[in-house]
Amino acid sequence: MTAAESYSFAMVRGDVFGRGPANAARRPYVPKGSRVHLSVTAATTSVPLGASQQLGVPRRLRKGRCGDGEGGEDDGARGDTAAPDNEGPVPVALMGLISTDSSAGTRLVRRTAVGGNDGGGSFWDSDAVPSGQRIGCIQLAPESRAEMLQFSPHAAVFPSPRLYVADTIGNVYYATLPATSLAEISDEPPKKRPRRGTDTDDAFWRTVASATTSEGGVTYGAPGWCGLLPFSSGQLVCCREFFFDLRLVDVPAGTVVRQYGTIHPATGVTACSGVPHGAVVAEGPVATLYDMRCPGAALTLSPDSTREVPLVTSRLTSPASYVADVCATCNDYEVAVAVGRSLCVHDVRKWSRVSVSTNTLKYEIASIAAFASGKAVVVAGIDAEVRIVPLQKTPPAAAAPARAAGNGLPRKEEDAAAASPASFRNRLDSAVCCRSTWNGGWVAGLDGVSATGVSADHEVFVAF
């Protein structure tokens, strides 16, 4: 089995979003690459799970050519992904999901498999964000992520996770989900149930940074992509596309510590484990590593404070294509960069290219997400296509020239091209498509073993 065959896709069939999709034909639009959902998965290799212990039922998808018309159309996806592969059971199960609502995209929705007798799970939705704008990014607080990982394998039923939420214009909020969000779905109509949180709106949505906060008091911009990058030191990086800025926020103080201007509109941000104080930002044709070291709001806002480290540590420039997104890998100083239709792995210290996978998708890449502990990357396009790109090195046996049995002569050129992971034939055979397009970007799971993607037609896909 090759490295590409060790990873696969699965589509989660069933009632994943609860009552939301029944009221909306398509999910609200968010910019490409927006992280608007969080997923919690669990391994099923050791303990099998029943239908009531997971959200929906995952079915392994058969990889094939997109749009060739083969297979059935019973699950709503394209024909090439409709038929499940019978190679074996799916080793992961979707246990919990935090996403935006399916009607307006201004509220949070939590779905959890609580293991009830009816298998309905829990459904909880919050009030709309105070700004009324559409939610553009959802991130777990670092302390909640650590607590939920210690809560494994029952991380999905962690009672009160803390989230950072940003809308499409850059208002940043801090929210703590209540323990009542794990209540099971009731068959009683919603209008007969008492309202939840009628007097706790201010307690749930706590404003960390306003969109109009700037050094001059006036900020010009437009709704677009917005990314959040939490740091363990109680600081948060907020990056906005059409505001051309990068803000460092002190969460306990609720103050914007520093505000930097980007060269081009930003469309992706990630952290690098080897540079704990750095933020890698994808902005137009460049990818920049920003040094975000800062002691805090009190010392930074003083008039006599000086910066001892440079702002831009290193920068990558792509003269041919735009850098759409970035994500971390299993190596401390390496990040995966989506450049046009290619996926490149660079060392951020000098931006030396480690590897490159060309012609990854038919069209340009919209978002990427690492999974399998950073050993593979799922690549989603601007249309409906998605593909898995392994980052492992080619084993020596596969790197040696293939020879025919008996005569010891090299095989034909077409056989060698078929064995290449970047060949046109393998790109078509290893791609999977949703029905229409993706709703935002793919997101790595809580434990980093899998990644999930949501389509505009309420389809949920898992890469493992």
Give the SSE map.
Layout: E1 9-13, E2 37-43, E3 57-60, H1 79-82, E4 92-100, E5 108-112, E6 122-125, E7 135-140, H2 142-150, E8 162-167, E9 172-176, H3 201-204, E10 206-209, E11 226-230, E12 235-240, E13 245-250, E14 255-261, E15 266-272, E16 275-283, E17 286-291, H4 297-300, E18 312-317, E19 323-328, E20 334-339, E21 342-347, E22 352-357, E23 365-371, E24 376-381, E25 385-390, H5 396-399, H6 413-419, H7 424-429, E26 431-433, E27 443-444, E28 451-454, E29 460-463
Antiparallel strand pairs: 1-3, 1-29, 2-4, 4-5, 5-6, 7-8, 8-9, 9-10, 11-12, 12-13, 13-14, 15-16, 16-17, 17-18, 19-20, 20-21, 21-22, 23-24, 24-25, 25-26, 27-28, 28-29
Largest sheet: 5 strands, antiparallel
For the record, the CATH class is: Mainly Beta
Please estimate the helix content.
under 10%
CATH topology: Methylamine Dehydrogenase, Chain H
- The CATH architecture can be named as 7 Propeller
Class by helix and strand content? mainly beta
Keywords:
mainly beta, Methylamine Dehydrogenase, Chain H, 4-stranded antiparallel beta sheet, 7 helices, 35% strand, Quino_amine_DH_bsu
Q: In words, what does this structure look like?
A:
Residues 49-89 are annotated as: Disordered. InterPro entries: Quino_amine_DH_bsu (IPR011044). This protein is mainly beta. It has a single domain (4-396, 409-463), classed as YVTN repeat-like/Quinoprotein amine dehydrogenase (Methylamine Dehydrogenase, Chain H, 7 Propeller). 8% of the residues lie in helices and 35% in strands. The chain contains seven helices and 29 strands. It has helices spanning 79-82, 142-150, 201-204, 297-300, 396-399, 413-419, 424-429, and strands spanning 9-13, 37-43, 57-60, 92-100, 108-112, 122-125, 135-140, 162-167, 172-176, 206-209, 226-230, 235-240, 245-250, 255-261, 266-272, 275-283, 286-291, 312-317, 323-328, 334-339, 342-347, 352-357, 365-371, 376-381, 385-390, 431-433, 443-444, 451-454, 460-463. The strands form seven sheets. It has a five-stranded antiparallel sheet with strand order 3-1-29-28-27, with no helix packed on it. Strands 2-4-5-6 form a four-stranded antiparallel sheet, with no helix packed on it. A four-stranded antiparallel sheet has the order 7-8-9-10. Strand 20 and strand 21 form a beta hairpin. The longest helix is centred in the N-terminal third of the chain and has 9 residues, at 142-150. The chain is globular and about 55 Å long. It starts with 8 loop residues before the first strand and ends with a strand.
